[in-house]
Amino acid sequence: MRKLIILSSLAFLSFLSALNAQSYRYIKGWAQETNDQIESFLNSTLPMTERKVAVFDCDGTTFGQVPHYLADEALYQYAEEVLKKRNDKDAKERLAILDRMVKDGNNVGKPYVEDRVHFLAGLSPEEIEMIGAECYRKAYQGKFYPEMKELIANLKEYGFEVWILTASPEILYQKFVAEELGIPYTHIVGAKCVIANGKTTGEIIPPIPQDDGKASSIETFIKARPLIVGGNSRGDLDMLNESVGLKIVVNPDDVKVRGPEDGPMEGLTVKSYWENEGALIVKCNDVANPAIDFYTTKWKIRKNIPNPK
């Protein structure tokens, strides 16, 4: 009996030690109230033994999207710096896809999102990774929000799996996002395509993590209900509603009143809707760097709204 008591005491002390080893680090740049809310929630997850999953949108949620999405800038940069210097059939066909995308104009619409994958089809995964990484180096270096990086570091400390969902081509983002956030390539889920004989194809593997496809992507690829979900736009509504715990909304728009096509958001801005829902609203600095001349601007793709902090 005495031996059993000793073993039980040691197990309990070990459990307490494990709990104490996980400590919250204050996120500079966010209010004390915000930090208190996050810390309280994370501490409530300490006894959990099942998978602890956090899922975040990418552009505008983990790093800046002003003045343009990196997915667009990467493609238009490649067109200007590589394709326009060639005169072969492949270059002409890829440029024709870009012309179709520009004519479409809706760079958050399904046809445009799918055409990003079609534009890259035929390149190797390694080539696409480098296109994304080079674009990041030239135009987006330093645009990952320090507050979000600190939040993700806290989540790792508390034993969370961190996943990123993006409507952008998955391979285009995996290298630089994995390196910046310190998460596995496989936890960065985007628009997927079939890869055959070392080359990407235009065959898209559904669901695309866009609008309601983000919620489906959680069920299909992550296979766990997340305890935390973070997003920034109307397109993240369904994904945010997959959270069974904390919902974090970064730089939500408070200008455009949503219409009937936006379902429960009708008559509200994105910010006011999530305030009513009790989500945690946070601010991160996202403004254009005037020293960078974006190719996407030259191709006359709409600009994203700045969010100075």
How does this model look, in words?
The chain has twelve helices and seven strands. The protein has a single domain, classed as Rossmann fold. α8 links the parallel β2 and β3. With 309 residues, the chain is α/β, with parallel strands linked by helices.
Key features?
309 residues; alpha/beta; Rossmann fold; seven-stranded mixed beta sheet; 45% helix; globular
What is the average of the pLDDT values?
Answer: 94
Approximate shape: globular
Class in CATH? Alpha Beta
- Count of individual domains: 1
Order of helices and strands: HHEHHHHHEHEEHEHEHEH
CATH topology descriptor: Rossmann fold
Topology, number of strands: 7
Major sheet: arrangement of strands? 4-3-2-1-5-6-7
Provide a short characterization of the protein structure.
The protein is an alpha/beta fold and 309 residues long. The protein contains 12 helices and 7 strands.
Set out the fold topology.
Blueprint: H1 2-21, H2 32-44, E1 53-57, H3 70-81, H4 89-104, H5 110-120, H6 125-140, H7 146-157, E2 161-169, H8 170-181, E3 188-196, E4 199-205, H9 212-222, E5 228-231, H10 237-240, E6 246-250, H11 270-276, E7 280-282, H12 295-298
Parallel strand pairs: 1-2, 1-5, 2-3, 5-6, 6-7
Antiparallel strand pairs: 3-4
Helix pairs in contact: 3-6, 4-5, 6-8
